[in-house]
Amino acid sequence: MPVLDNFSKYISIDLGTANTLIYVSGKGVVLNEPSVIAINEKSKKVIAVGHEAKAMIGRTPPNVRVVRPIHDGVIADFDVTHQMLEKFIKKVYKNRGFVRPKVVVCIPCGVTEVERRAVREATIQAGAREAVIIEEPMAAAIGSGIMTSEAEGNLVIDIGGGTTEVALISLGGIVVFQSVRVAGDAMDEAIVNSFKLEYNLAIGDTTAEQVKMQIGSAIEDEEFDKKSLDVRGRDLIFGLPKTVNITAKEVRKMLNPIINEIIDAIRYALERTPPELAADLMERGLLLSGGGALLHGMDRKISQVTGMSVNVPESPLTVVAIGAGKYLDYISKKK
Fold it and tell me: Where are the alpha helices (DSSP H) in 27-76?
């Protein structure tokens, strides 16, 4: 991990349900870790954050609690969130003394004013001297190189861990948006529930995520559908370890209800798009970012339904953090 010098006092944070990314201008993304923290219940001390904490899920003794403090894109546990952020910021500034950076934090479009304030306060308590808020779709657009200040329509679809954000951007603002708390985590949950109902197999969220990433898909694909995976879990009838071989076609059926909800959100945003901007979208296409962009065939599925081209940035997982960093550079230069 790159260690920052004392002049790197401006950072951006993509505080996601699944992962937290920290970006520094000129250095890129210097931290990309799961939004997970492990705490000793007796001493109340933080044991681990990020990758180390995620590896503890389902494996801890009773006195250790592993927490994902961000649910559906918003803070579910304020105290734990600022502890996690504090640890992440210290990782970035390792061995460089006490630094209070100015921070841009990304949030979903659909958050309430209370939720927005909670993010800002948690960031300040974590060690930031100032916290600036930006909506995730706007950051994704900036990070993808879109000139958001122009009088042209751009539709951004950001499928994260907890939320799917669909936003129409023009003249530096969000004209229309639709935010639904259905995204990557809901896909994992659908896989867990399907294994219980169809195979009498209990699997954890981590296993479900691996199934999604390895053989999950959004569209019929004859070659891809032939792929299969051995999934290990606990037999719900006999209580013993059990292995089930499952195909990509079967996983797609599990994911279809979630994918359809995401498609409905996109349709709803398009239905409210002014005619002039709709014409721009037909010409320019749509932008797909976030972890959901990596699901096999997701871009083609959206293109089939909307009749428009779908563009995926080179790094859909980091584009929001990068865009927030560029935004911070812009507002810093204006002062």
Answer: 51-54
